[in-house]
Structures are given as C-alpha cells and as structure tokens.
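testing teh design pipeline on a random one, pls ignore if ur not involved
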C-alpha cells in the first residue's frame, strides 16, 4: 500500500480528496507536532513516556492534583504560545471550499479553530478552559494561570521539557507545598475541560460526530494512530457504512486494515497541495 513513490502517493491522496465531495475528518496529535506540541506515541503506536494523569486519581487524590497543576503551570507557558501550522491551514482551506462535513479532533489545543476552521468538534475538550467539577462553572485557563502563579511564585520560574497536553516532564520534586486554587463559586475541584484518560467523551459530541460520518462521502484521518477507542470508533462506523477511509500518519494506525489509502508522510507535507492550490486561485 505504501510502496508507491512519495509523489505518486500524493497524487493518489489528491484524487481521493477530489473524488469525495464531503469529508469526515478526524485529526490527532500528528497535526500539532509541527506547532511544537509533543505527542504521546511513537511510530509503532506505543507510549513514548509515562502515561498521563488518569481521571479517577485526579478526582480522588489532592496530591495528584497538586502534581498535575504544578506541571501544568509550567507547561501552559509553552502550550499557550503554539500557533497553527500548514496542516491546520490546509484543512481550514478545505472547509472554505465546502468540502468538510465535520472536522473531529482529538487534540485539545484549539489550533484548528485558530486556523479558521468552524465545523469543528473538540472530541476531548479544550485545554484553554477550566471547569468546576461540582457546579460546572467554567473559567479561562489563562485566568487560572494568573492565580496559580500568584500562589506559587517559585514554581513560575521553573523550566522543564515540554510533554503532551500542556504538561511538562518534571519528576523528583516535592509537590506537597503547591497551592491549588478551588472554584471561586463553590469551592469545588477545578479540572481542565478536557477528557482525561479513564473518563468518557460527552455523549452529544460522539452523536454529532457519528451523524456526520453517515452524511459524509469518505473519511480522512490526519495525524492520528487511533490507538484510543474514542477516535477509532469513527473509523469502524465509516467502514461499516461502506465509506472509503484514507489516513495520513507517520506510523502505524489501529485502523490500517480498514484503510483504502495510507500516506506515510508528515501531515503538512502530504496536504501541502491544498495550500498550493489556494495560492494559485489568488
Ligand atoms: Zn464550583
């Protein structure tokens, strides 16, 4: 399947996109690595580092929350500065051309929206919003950042290697003195408005996405290994409905056997023709 030379691969992807009027897009971490946001998995789909925080320990253990927010305080400085790259721009361009039924992203960085895409479902939520788990009050992450810094000035100076989802690699430190703010409305536990590992995706997001799969003519996966079921199920649904599926991903995907077409390239490279066309039109 991937034995074609690279330019031939690109031509096949180009005709796949040309032949299918309405696309259901599913995007993952591979879209954002070129914006400087690291991903979790290597080319074989295996974990690159220790698994991220799980939902239940976060909710049950204040020590887990102190560790999470200490790392997040440092990670936010990098994460909040990320900008959309050519992959986000190429997919936003496809929407302008009326070719996107829906773009479902597993990323929590909001970069598709920042690039101009509007038909977006943030399947796993967004890191720039924080939610109270008791009263559901939502605040902007940048507001909480100020509070975190005010309460923990010495942590605000630290540097560490960036990890996925606004996290950093920070081990061997004593987190016990880290001061985590509670909800200003009710004193409840604050959690980023993203779906943690071990937590389910809100039902209405899944339903919206499933309906779009049925309306679409084909599915295009960009930069995801689909190792997490929350994304894989859309490939299963598309295959069951007889919709052809193409994927752009540097490594193996869990859906490899369902694919009509697989492009093993960086996302921006594989989709660059969309931006070339845009230049020509202008
Ligand atoms: Zn609250």
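output:
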């Amino acid at each position: 399947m991937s034995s074609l030379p690279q330019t031939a691969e690109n031509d096949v992807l180009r005709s796949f996109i040309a032949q299918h009027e309405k696309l259901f897009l599913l995007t993952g971490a591979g879209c954002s690595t070129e914006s400087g946001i690291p991903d979790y998995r290597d080319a074989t789909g295996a974990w690159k580092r220790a698994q991220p925080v799980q939902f239940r320990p976060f909710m049950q253990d204040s020590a887990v929350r102190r560790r999470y927010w200490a790392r997040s305080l440092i990670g936010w400085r990098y994460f909040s500065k990320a900008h959309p790259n050519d992959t986000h721009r190429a997919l936003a361009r496809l929407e302008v051309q009326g070719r996107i039924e829906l773009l479902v992203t597993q990323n929590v960085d909001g970069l598709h929206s920042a690039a101009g895409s509007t038909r977006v479902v943030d399947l796993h939520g967004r890191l720039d919003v924080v939610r109270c788990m008791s009263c559901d009050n939502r605040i902007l992450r940048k507001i909480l950042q100020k509070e975190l810094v005010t309460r923990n000035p010495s942590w605000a100076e630290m540097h560490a290697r960036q990890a996925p989802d606004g996290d950093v690699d920070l081990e061997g430190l004593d987190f016990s003195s880290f001061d985590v703010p509670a909800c200003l409305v009710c004193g409840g536990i604050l959690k980023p408005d993203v779906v943690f590992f071990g937590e389910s995706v809100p039902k209405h997001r899944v339903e919206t996405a499933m309906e779009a799969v049925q309306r679409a003519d084909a599915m295009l996966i960009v930069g995801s290994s689909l190792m997490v079921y929350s994304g894989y199920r859309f490939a299963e649904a598309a295959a069951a409905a007889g919709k052809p599926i193409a994927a752009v991903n540097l490594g193996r995907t869990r859906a490899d056997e369902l694919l009509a077409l697989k492009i093993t390239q960086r996302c921006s490279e594989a989709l660059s023709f969309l931006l070339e066309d845009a230049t020509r039109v202008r």
